[in-house]
Structure formats: structure tokens, C-alpha cells
Write a structure and sequence with these properties.
The chain has helices spanning 28-44, 56-62, 98-109, 161-170, 205-212, 226-231, and strands at residues 4-7, 12-13, 64-70, 82-87, 115-118, 147-149, 173-175, 179-185, 188-195, 217-220, 236-239, 266-270, 273-277, 295-301. With 305 residues, the protein is an alpha/beta fold. It has one domain (24-301): Purple Acid Phosphatase, chain A, domain 2.
């Protein structure tokens, strides 16, 4: 597979005051939408597993890699450049075929990332969605600094998040749930952390920060963690969740909005901290994307000059 590649725009400077008129995470309509999503993802789609994979053809045609170089303030000085592959919202299950997913993962690993960050929602509705697809993800663990995961909201739909963690551990991908780890890179090191899902998990900054202090690199499925991460002096946060809107008019705003703070896709900056939001790989609700093609993001991180 020949990957389409594109340059992401430079980080958009945010004031911290940007807000959606309606909080997309609250309200009666949002609660109803979430419950409908849960019921369909957990109980309906598994009955159609293996007989209906409508999204994979579009995924194979439209998947691309966004590329960006960043130098976050507070990044450890003296570290060599770090190549991070950000993948989010795989949504294993009814919409994906092993053949397409395997080919995409193989092509991504040919980019030779130092570290792979999977920012939540590896399944659509339950751990069983990984049946037949789990080994397709195994190459992600072969990056020199490993493959790492944080939980997203869909990972809690089936009530079996611990089973997801065990399955990923089996293929060498480690889940960080309000946890952090010190990784050696070149002659130095940095702290990698992952915080639990904002909507359905139990995120704990106290637990995360007690491990090794503020992470230099944070995995957070929901981008609305960004300003809290900035307040804790975290230089770089990697997120997904939004799907870039999944459906949006050409050059227009997303029709489905998931971020209260208008953090829909791409790179953002506030004070000395940076956020990168991936559109993600998979699809939910509808086996279709328009105006927000699926992607992974290859990030080169260097210390500030």
C-alpha cells in the first residue's frame, strides 16, 4: 500500500477562551445519542460481524498520514529527534476487515517510528471486536520504544476494559491508565503518561502525576484534557475522539462536534504546551466519512532551540 502523505498546518494558537455554544458532552440529546451508540455498538453490530464490512473499501482509498514537526516548550533538552506515530479511534469491529487493517499497519511501520501512541477507542463496543483483528495490530509494538495505549469512551461500552487491556498486552502494547513510565531515548529520557477517558473512565491527575511527575508526552483520548494538561506543565498531548467531525462540508466546520473547546483536528498551542488531535482511523455510527478522511499522524519532536 502506498500511503498518501500530507503536511499538517502549523499549530493554531488558542486563547483558552474558545467555547462551543452547546457543550457537546452534556445535555439530554447527548445522553440519548451516547446511549444509542452504546446499544448499537454493543448489541447490534456484533451480530453482523464478518458479514458486513462497508467501511474498509473507503478506508483503503482515503487513508493518509499527516506529518508535522514540533518543538514543545519544556521538552527535555539534549534528546535526539523523536518520531511518534499517533493512531486513534481504530474502532475494531464490524466496519473493518483484517486485510485492510493489516496492510495499513504494515505500511505505517515502514515509516520507522521510534514510538507508537494509540490514543483510545481501539474497539467499537466490546473487547470481542478485536477477534480476528488483534494480530493485525501486533506490529505496532515493534517500534524501538514500544506501543502504548490509553482508554477511550468506546472501550468502556462493553464493561470489559480490563479484557481489552489484557488483549493488547498479549501483543506487546501497554495500556497507561492514569499511569506513566520513563523511557530512555539517546543519551537522555522523557516521561510518557496516559490518562483515563474523560467521559466514561475515572481520570486522576493526582494518580498520574504521582508516578514520575508531569509527563513530557501525554496520551489523552479526549482533546478537552488539553488545558488541564497545560496547567500541569505537560509539553505535548496527543488525542483523538473527534474523528475530525467524520462528516463535514468542504472547508467547513464539522457537523458532529465532540470538543467543547473547538479542538477538532490538527495541532493547537496554548502558552508553552502543544496538542495534536488525529482524525482517527475508523468510523462509528455510519460506515462512511466525508470531508474528514481517516488518518494517522507522524510527529517529529525536537527540543526547543
Amino acid at each position: 500500500m502506498i500511503l498518501r502523505r500530507r503536511e499538517l498546518k502549523a499549530a493554531r494558537r488558542m486563547t483558552g477562551k474558545e467555547r462551543r455554544w452547546i457543550n457537546p458532552s452534556r445535555g439530554l440529546l447527548k445522553v440519548l445519542e451516547r446511549q444509542m451508540d452504546l446499544v448499537v455498538s454493543r448489541f447490534l453490530y456484533p451480530r453482523m460481524q464478518g458479514i458486513w464490512n462497508p467501511y474498509s473499501r473507503q478506508l483503503a482509498r482515503r487513508f493518509s498520514v499527516g506529518e508535522i514537526s514540533v518543538s514543545p516548550g519544556g521538552w527535555p533538552r539534549g534528546l535526539p529527534a523523536l518520531k511518534v506515530l499517533l493512531i486513534s479511534d481504530i474502532h475494531a469491529g464490524i466496519f473493518l476487515t483484517p486485510e485492510v487493517l493489516s496492510e495499513i499497519v504494515r505500511s505505517l511501520m515502514e515509516l520507522r517510528p521510534d514510538l507508537v501512541a494509540v490514543a483510545g477507542d481501539v474497539v467499537t463496543g466490546r473487547a470481542g471486536d478485536l477477534d480476528g483483528l488483534l494480530m493485525c495490530l501486533a506490529p505496532l509494538s515493534r517500534a524501538p520504544l514500544g506501543g502504548w495505549y490509553c482508554f477511550g469512551n468506546h472501550d468502556y461500552f462493553g464493561g470489559d476494559a480490563d479484557d481489552i487491556r489484557e488483549r493488547l498486552d498479549r501483543i506487546g502494547i501497554t495500556t497507561l491508565r492514569n499511569e506513566s513510565v520513563v523511557l530512555t531515548h539517546g543519551n537522555g529520557g522523557f516521561v510518557l503518561g496516559g490518562i483515563d477517558d474523560r467521559l466514561l473512565g475515572t481520570p486522576s491527575w493526582d494518580q498520574l502525576l504521582s508516578e514520575d511527575g508531569p509527563p513530557h508526552l501525554l496520551l489523552a483520548h479526549h482533546p478537552d484534557f488539553f488545558y488541564e494538561a497545560e496547567a500541569h506543565s505537560i509539553p505535548l498531548t496527543l488525542s483523538g475522539h473527534t474523528h475530525g467531525g467524520q462528516i463535514r462540508l468542504p472547508n467547513g466546520r464539522p457537523l458532529v462536534r465532540q470538543s467543547k473547546f473547538c479542538l477538532d483536528e490538527g495541532a493547537y498551542a496554548h502558552d508553552a504546551s502543544l496538542l495534536i488531535v488525529s482524525r482517527g482511523l475508523g468510523s462509528v455510527g455510519l460506515p462512511w466519512r466525508y470531508g474528514a478522511d481517516p488518518e494517522a499522524v507522524l510527529i517529529e519532536v525536537t527540543p526547543p532551540a
